[in-house]
Design brief:
The chain has three helices and no strands. With 68 residues, it is an all-alpha fold.
Length: 68
């Protein structure tokens, strides 16, 4: 797989995650930044599982901010 194909695969998976977690579109960091920050922690998982873990963590941070 080329690097361009891998990037496209990740973009598609990120878009799928955002459809499941629409509130993350308003997250102050871009999802891509969150993804690159956290992905090494969960890279042993399949891509969709890793993104789901990242989405849950990001939403948890949003809830923390809301209840400040």
């Amino acid at each position: 797989m080329t690097s361009q194909q891998a990037t496209r695969l990740h973009d598609v998976a990120i878009e799928r995650m955002l459809r499941r977690h629409p509130r993350l579109r308003t997250y102050p960091l871009t999802v891509r930044a969150v993804y690159h920050y956290l992905y090494p922690v969960v890279e042993h998982l399949q891509l969709d599982q890793a993104l789901e873990c990242i989405a849950r963590e990001a939403e948890r941070h949003l809830l923390d901010e809301d209840h400040g």
